Amino acid sequence: MSLPLHERIRREIEADILAGTLPPGARLPTELELMARHGCARMTVSKALSALATAGLVDRRKRAGSFVARPKVHSMVLDIPDLAVEVERRGQRYRYELLHRTVRAADPASPVEAALAGTGELLRIEGVHHADDRPLAVEDRLISLAAVPEIRAVDFGLISPGAWLLGHVPWTEAELRVAAVAAEGEAAARLDRPAGTACLAVERRTWRGADGITWVRQLLSGSDFDLVASFGPTRAG
Amino acid sequence: MSLPLHERIRREIEADILAGTLPPGARLPTELELMARHGCARMTVSKALSALATAGLVDRRKRAGSFVARPKVHSMVLDIPDLAVEVERRGQRYRYELLHRTVRAADPASPVEAALAGTGELLRIEGVHHADDRPLAVEDRLISLAAVPEIRAVDFGLISPGAWLLGHVPWTEAELRVAAVAAEGEAAARLDRPAGTACLAVERRTWRGADGITWVRQLLSGSDFDLVASFGPTRAG
DNA sequence: CAGTGGTCTAGACCACTGA
DNA sequence: CAGTGGTCTAGACCACTGA
């Protein structure tokens, strides 16, 4: 244990948040309680909590206390639109059409599935995003049921899997892969576009700590869509 | 002045870095000097410097001092490949072909140009990126000469504008826009692809503080390319 | 080996805000 | 109005490392 004390305290709390022991909205111990627990000065616990606040994992409010932040850890860094929000911002009506929904074990021969869920169970969801009943994107998604067990009960006739996950599961790491492809066959038909139409293929993986949450591949119809990302240094304070 | 003292100190140093008064590699005042200058305790200046280090603007080394970081502010957040690096990683030979190079005043009627350079001068550079003499991407770039005057003297037969900027100019904010388009006409011909080929159109703007540095639009040939971005929370310490 | 940053203490006063 | 976090002080000891 050559790690500084403030860093050990920070990691202990972070681990509880990522494990879900401290769920979004939960109140953390006060600085006074953490001082007593670790037998240290207030500046030391303050440094640990401030680092968590800077990283976006914790909200600190005077008189009220420190709380686990609601899932929006990523919002300062990445602004890939939730399709529903984006469609409604254009004044169109959004609808998610569920095509298939299956639960099965992860295939150990598939690198994607093994990395996501090991040998655990997967929820696979296929669907189409519509704007004013015009198809905008086809989506193929895998979700690790070990990481998100409560998703079994969700009705995806009412909300898309992406929107549900965004509101319920905090993520800490993500990888995004974007390419241009020509829509072919079934995908082109589902998008109601001629074969050969230039589409954006977006592949995204999301983790909470070391645990995979979801893998998703979307094919976005033609040049209907821009993906926009903004980047800047993290501001302290 | 209701800002905390540590935050005022942080901003003062950040402003000097962004203005270029403190160029990359320059040594900052020591904590002792900053204490004397601001008449405060060491913890206060330490907080300001630590925040700058966490944001990636400053490197701190024991015994040596604190230094303005070399331009790599963004590397933790965004990994959009420098095309030259990416091509060489595949074991191919990279070449940048300069097509046009002109200097002119920014057009106030163009929102892009006005936002980049106000009424100042622009360097416009058009070129093609090649891998093993096969065209990979066409690029159209604008650079604000007020922000980067030393670029007038650079020979882009030897290095691409993007690689030069990456090595010489630190940026703090960036916006990236990605869409799928079908290559047509001149662009398709320069990429040596049939019209209608699905391509990635990448548009990117970069700032240093409030000053625009560059705007660039690249058309990446077919599915030769993935763009990959990784995201995670900033770690303190 | 001396100067620098890294960490930590044991206090203090204050600003804010929800019970 | 009392509890919480925000800031700041004036020290201390230590680890590291380049002159």
| Multimerization status | homodimer
CATH fold label of the largest domain in chain A = Chorismate lyase
CATH architecture of the largest domain in chain A: 3-Layer(aba) Sandwich
By CATH reckoning, the class of the largest domain in chain A would read Alpha Beta
Secondary-structure class of chain A: alpha+beta
Q: Major sheet of chain A: size, sense and barrel closure?
A: 6 strands, antiparallel
Largest interface, Cβ cutoff 8 Å: A-B, 46 and 46 residues
**Any idea what the CATH superfamily of the largest domain in chain A is called?**
Chorismate lyase-like
Radius of gyration of chain A (CA) equals 21 Å
Report low-confidence residues of chain A grouped into runs of 5 or more: 73-79, 233-237
Q: How many strands appear in the DSSP assignment of chain A?
A: 9
Dominant shape of chain A: elongated
Structurally, the number of domains of chain A stands at 2
Proportion of residues in β-strands of chain A: 25-35%
**Alpha-carbon distance between the termini of chain A?**
28 Å
- Continuous helix count of chain A: 7
Series of secondary-structure elements of chain A, N-terminal to C-terminal: HHHEEHEHEEHEHEEE
Helix content of chain A: 25-40%
Order of strands, main sheet of chain A, comes to 3-4-5-8-7-6
Keywords (chains A, B): DNA-binding, Transcription, Transcription regulation
Domain HTH gntR-type (chains A, B): 3-71
GO molecular function (chains A, B): DNA binding; DNA-binding transcription factor activity
Pfam families (chains A, B): GntR, UTRA
